[in-house]
Specification:
Double Stranded RNA Binding Domain, nine-stranded mixed beta sheet, five-stranded antiparallel beta sheet, 10 helices, 18 strands, binds S-adenosylmethionine, cytoplasm
C-alpha cells in the first residue's frame, strides 16, 4: 500500500498553486476538502504518459508522484486502446485532465449539495468521484463512458478511492451523446469530452433551470467551454465563459483519410495576400465564429503549411504554404468546398464585427439546431 505522505504534501502545494491562479471554485473550503477526500493518485495507472514523457510508478516512483500532483494531463489511453500510451505515439483517447482545466470547467457547473448530475466521459473516474463528493449523499452522479475497458478500470479506481459508506457514481457504458434517460432529469450535465454541437438528449434530460457545461468547438482551434442553461420550453441559452481543450466525443471526431501530400491531383491553385498565420493563430472568439460559419473545418498547423480539413469529408481540404518573406501565399483547395475561402471569410466576419471577445458570444440550442449570437439572443450571426 502506498503511504499517503507523498500525496498530501504534493496535493496541498497543487491546491495552493491553483487557488492562487484563481482555478479553485467556491466555496473554496468545500472544494479543498473534496480534493483531499478523493485521492488523485488512485486514478492514475502505474504506467502512463505525460507532456514531460513517460511515468512508471515502480521504476521511478518520485517522478510518478510528481506527475500525478502536477498541473498537467496524464494520458491513460491512446488510439482507443490499440497503442500503449507509454510509447508517446498515437492520439490520446482518454486522459486524466489537468486539474486546473477540471476545476475551471467544474466551476461553471455551480454544483450544490443534492444535485443530480450526468457526466459524459468517465475516463479514470476522477471527476465523477469529485462531483459525487461535492453533491454529497443527497445528490447523485451518473457517468457515461463509451469505452467498456475504461469504465471497468474506473469502477476499480472508484472502489479504491471512495469510503465504503459514500455514495458511489453509477457508471454506464454507452454513447454519452444519448445521455442516460433512465435517471433524468438532471440538475447538471457535465461533459469531459468536447462537442461540435450539443446533443439534443442532453437538453431533453436537463431539468428546467438546470445547466450543461461542455468543452465546445474543438476542431478548428483550442476550443471553448459552453455553459448552457435550460429554459422551461427546453431551449438552451448559453455563453462561452472561457477556453477549454478536451478530446472530442467519439461520435463527433473529425474523419481521417485526408492526403498528407500537397501535390495531390485535382486541387484548385490560387494565391492569397492573407497571411495564413493570421487565421491559424486567431483568438478563441475568431475560432468560434469560424467553427460556425465554416462548419466542420478542422485545422492542422505544420511548420511549413496550414492545412484545413473538412472533418466530415476526407476528399475536401485546403493547404496554404507558409513561405517566409512572400507577399502572396500559395493556396490549394480540393473537393466540394473552398475551405480556405470559407475560413478567411468567417475570420473577416469576426473582424468586421469589431473583434468581439469570447464572452460576448452566446448560443441558443433548440431541436432545430444551434444559433450563435453576439451580446443578445436576437442578434444572430449564424
Ligand atoms: C478527457 S477524458 C475524461 C476524463 C475523466 N473525466 C477523468 O476524470 O478521468 C474523455 C473521456 O471521454 C470518453 N468519451 C469519448 N467519447 C465518448 C462518448 N461518446 N460517450 C462517453 N464517453 C466518451 C473517452 O473515452 C474518455 O475516457
Amino acid at each position: 500500500m502506498t503511504p499517503a505522505g507523498p500525496a498530501d504534501e504534493r496535493l496541498t502545494a497543487l491546491i495552493s498553486e491553483l487557488a492562487t491562479k484563481g482555478y479553485l471554485p467556491g466555496p473554496a473550503d468545500d472544494w479543498t476538502r473534496a480534493l483531499h477526500a478523493v485521492p488523485r493518485h488512485t486514478f492514475v495507472p502505474a504506467r502512463a504518459w505525460t507532456p514531460s514523457g513517460p511515468i512508471d510508478r515502480d521504476a521511478h516512483p518520485d517522478r510518478w508522484w510528481d506527475a500525478v500532483y502536477a498541473d498537467a494531463p496524464i494520458t491513460t489511453q491512446t488510439d482507443d486502446g490499440t497503442t500503449d500510451p507509454i510509447t508517446g505515439q498515437g492520439v490520446a483517447t482518454s486522459s486524466l485532465s489537468a486539474l486546473s482545466g477540471v476545476l475551471f470547467n467544474m466551476g461553471f457547473l455551480d454544483l450544490d449539495d443534492g444535485h443530480r448530475v450526468l457526466e459524459i466521459g468517465t475516463g479514470t473516474g476522477y471527476t465523477a468521484a469529485l462531483t459525487a463528493r461535492i453533491v454529497g449523499k443527497a445528490g447523485s452522479v451518473v457517468s457515461v463512458e463509451v469505452d467498456a475497458e475504461l469504465a471497468s478500470a474506473a469502477e476499480k479506481n472508484l472502489t479504491a478511492a471512495l469510503p465504503a459508506d459514500s455514495r458511489t457514481p453509477a457508471l454506464i457504458v454507452g454513447d454519452g451523446a444519448d445521455g442516460y434517460a433512465a435517471d433524468a432529469p438532471y440538475d447538471r450535465v457535465h461533459a469531459t469530452c468536447s462537442v461540435q454541437t450539443i446533443p439534443p438528449a442532453w437538453l431533453a434530460q436537463t431539468r428546467p433551470g438546470g445547466r450543461i457545461v461542455t468543452p465546445y468547438g474543438r476542431w478548428f482551434g483550442y476550443g471553448s467551454v459552453a455553459q448552457v442553461d435550460v429554459l422551461p420550453d427546453g431551449t438552451g441559452i448559453g455563453r462561452f465563459p472561457g477556453t477549454s481543450g478536451y478530446m472530442p466525443l467519439r461520435s463527433q471526431r473529425p474523419v481521417d483519410g485526408h492526403p498528407a501530400d500537397w501535390d495531390a491531383p485535382g486541387a484548385r491553385i490560387s494565391r492569397t495576400g492573407v497571411n495564413p498565420r493570421t487565421v491559424a493563430y486567431a483568438p478563441a472568439a475568431a475560432d468560434l465564429v469560424i467553427t460556425h460559419l465554416a462548419p466542420g473545418v478542422a485545422a492542422r498547423r505544420a511548420d511549413d503549411a496550414l492545412w484545413l480539413l473538412d472533418g466530415r469529408d476526407p476528399d475536401c481540404w485546403a493547404i496554404v504554404v507558409l513561405a517566409e518573406h512572400e507577399d502572396l501565399f500559395e493556396v490549394r483547395q480540393h473537393g466540394r468546398r473552398d475551405l480556405w475561402d470559407e475560413t478567411v471569410a468567417a475570420y473577416f466576419r469576426w473582424q468586421a464585427l469589431g473583434r468581439p471577445t469570447l464572452d460576448r458570444f452566446g448560443l441558443t440550442v433548440t431541436d432545430a439546431g444551434e444559433r450563435l449570437w453576439l451580446d443578445r439572443p436576437d442578434d444572430v450571426i449564424f
